[in-house]
Amino acid sequence: MKPSPYQIAAFTEAARQKSFSRAAVSLGVTQSAVTQHVARLEQTVGTPLFIRRREGLELTVAGRELFAISDRLRTLEQLVAERVSDYGDMAAGQLRIGANAPRPALPLIARFTRQFPQVEISFTLMSWDLAMQRLREREIDIGFVVDPEPDPALVVRQLGFTTYRAFVHVDHPLASRESISLHELQHQVLVVPEDGSLTQRLLYRWAEELGLNLRQVIKTATFPMVKEAVLHGVGVGLMLADGQFPSRNLKALPITEMQESHRNCLVIPSDKANLRLISNFAELSLD
Predict the structure, then answer these.
(1) What pLDDT is stored for residue 147 in this prediction?
(2) Is the pTM of this model over 0.85?
């Protein structure tokens, strides 16, 4: 049996929104219509496409494979709709944005929402690995990623450069220093973002190259959690120099061995780059 366009649309929007109810609102139909279309599509495919969880929908393996194709189809439909109708006023729409750190993403989102207040934005902080994965799997429309991997399926626009710093509380004994080495930091409690982060990857690479024995490494969820840990005196945080809103209670120390610059980039699935919402956000970011 051939799936109907309504089934594909309902499935794709539910996968995007991770919710049947939000998909129904986006499509302008009832929730029961969305669930029925998805159920019929699952019957046709012969396997579940979603795992229904209390916190939302999660794609199965089959669901992810189908979404990788159906989302492209929906993107083409959006492009056609934008050519046919006058969508230039940006009166409505949705953007899914992911980032490794709050900045530069949040200041740019603030500028965009002031200019286009009717656009609905979902923003999530995530590890470097997860950001690259979700861009490839089309689960986010725009990513702010440091040093993204080359990928022909992704468009990369460089926004600037950043470096890593060791952050300490202003009352910390190291706060009087102007810089510090990894040899000295190996004897400190280090606070870093979660597994899959570029920060961890670089730290462990340098530790291996220098033959360091790191005393204790505490892993947190995101850069804001690293910042909170440092402010509470947990240890020394490794963070991007400009990845957080500045705090008078923190001091950033250059790290002798980690002086290289890293690219702050805007990353977009290539076939979505011409969607007007996304291209306008990109133009604003690059301005």
Answers:
(1) 97
(2) no
